[in-house]
Amino acid sequence: DTEVTQTPKHLVMGMTNKKSLKCEQHMGHRAMYWYKQKAKKPPELMFVYSYEKLSINESVPSRFSPECPNSSLLNLHLHALQPEDSALYLCASSQGPSLHSGYNEQFFGPGTRLTVL
Amino acid sequence: AQSVTQPDIHITVSEGASLELRCNYSYGATPYLFWYVQSPGQGLQLLLKYFSGDTLVQGIKGFEAEFKRSQSSFNLRKPSVHWSDAAEYFCASPGGSSNTGKLIFGQGTTLQVKP
Predict the structure, then answer these.
(1) pLDDT value of residue A97
(2) Residues 6+ apart with CB under 8 A from A59
């Protein structure tokens, strides 16, 4: 299995709602990532989990809360979002990072298209 | 600061014509370099990667890229473009931080294919 899956594909939520995005991989990867992508822009890194521990938080607002329940699953909990948070949210995984891997070949999921009303 | 630059924001080619998308990097040592493709509303798919060794790298879908240290470039090429190649293309590199998980992306190049 060389896939990263994401659910849901589309999500529409109000500013007072609480929702979650889910990402799953079964490639035995030990690093997982959340990205935010606006139209016609490159992905922007939000969070990195390495061996199920949060290793990078790119100063993301607290209304985004990541969770890594196990090495195959990554969630992004959403609460009190703003309309400007509407974007494509991408999950990725890689064998690294580690001091020994030396590279970051990341495999991306298809994304969740989020619209905040 | 380390950076990846894609000088062309938008490129239009005719179907069957050859294609070259440019990518320049700024990093002193030999970087790891990737090309990703993204179809509308989809995730990113890895086309090819360069780590070391042979500077001409073959990828999927008939793409290749050549690493040129003297020009700090890693340009993507395809000899004959198909209409299905219309997409957004991103060059990326971890720069010097290959063990942190961060990828530096170029701004992307939108490829339009004319019939």
Answers:
(1) 59
(2) none
